[in-house]
Amino acid sequence: MENRVIMFHHCEKDIYCFNVPEQCPICGQSLTGRRLEDAPVSIPNSFVDGHREKCSFLIKPTKGSFLSSHYSFFAGVVHNYIETGVQRDDCGWEECVCVSLVQPDMYSLINQWDLYLEQFSTADIWLPNRYESSHHNCYSYALTFINRVLVAQSKRQLSRTEFTERFVVPQTKRASRYITLYRELCRSYFYIADGIQAEEISSQF
Ligand SMILES: [Zn+2]
C-alpha cells in the first residue's frame, strides 16, 4: 500500500482519492482557491512497519485471517509462536496493525523487554509439540506474555475476551475500513461519501 489516501470536500460530499484532481469529479468546478476548511487532508494509514515498532502486539492479515505476535525492542525482531515453535522474524511484518503495549516513559520495562521476551519464549510451554491451533497458539503466546508483564507491574491481568475487545477489535476494524477504501480507490480513482456516512467515515479515521 504505497499510496496515501487523501480526502477533500466538495458538493457537500467527502471525496477520497490518491491524487487530488484539478476539478471536482462531481460538478467539474476548479478546485483551486477553495476555502481552508475544504483543503485536502491525508487519511492516516492503519498499517505500520512492525519491525520499527517497540514493545507492541502486532497483527498481520494472512490469507484473510489475522495472525498475531509480539515484537522485541531494538533488534527489530518479531517474536511469534507457530506450529514449529517460537519464531524470531526479522522480516515479513512490514505491513501490519500495531497495538502499542507500553507508554513511552516506561523506561525500565522497555529496557527489560528483550530479556523478558527471550526468557518467556524459551519456556517449555512454547515448544513446537505443545502447539494447538485453536487454544495454544500465537494469540495465547502473545496474551500470556502481556499478562506476565502486567503482573510484573502489579497490574490486573486481561482475559482473552477483554484484550480482544478493548485493544484488538478497534484496531482491526479501523484497518479493515482502510483496506476497503484503499481497494475501492485502486479500482475507481474516487470514492465519494455523503451525509451521515461521510461523517462516520471521517470520524472513523
Ligand atoms: Zn463539486
The total strand number stands at: 9
- Give start-end ranges of low-pLDDT stretches: 195-202
Shape, per Cα inertia axes? elongated
User: What is the total domain count?
Assistant: 2
Main sheet overview: 5 strands, antiparallel
Helical content class: 25-40%
SSE order, as H and E? EEEEEEEEHHHEH
Ligands present: zinc ion
Kindly report the spatial arrangement of strands forming the biggest sheet. Answer: 7-6-5-4-8
Straight-line N-to-C gap: 17 Å
Whole-number average pLDDT? 84
Q: Quick gist of this model?
A:
By secondary structure, the protein is of the alpha+beta class.
Detailed description of the structure:
- This protein is of the alpha+beta class and 205 residues long.
- It folds into two domains: 55 residues, no CATH class; 109 residues, no CATH class.
- The chain has four helices and nine strands; from the N terminus they run E-E-E-E-E-E-E-E-H-H-H-E-H.
- Strand 4 and strand 5 form a beta hairpin.
- Bound molecules: zinc ion.
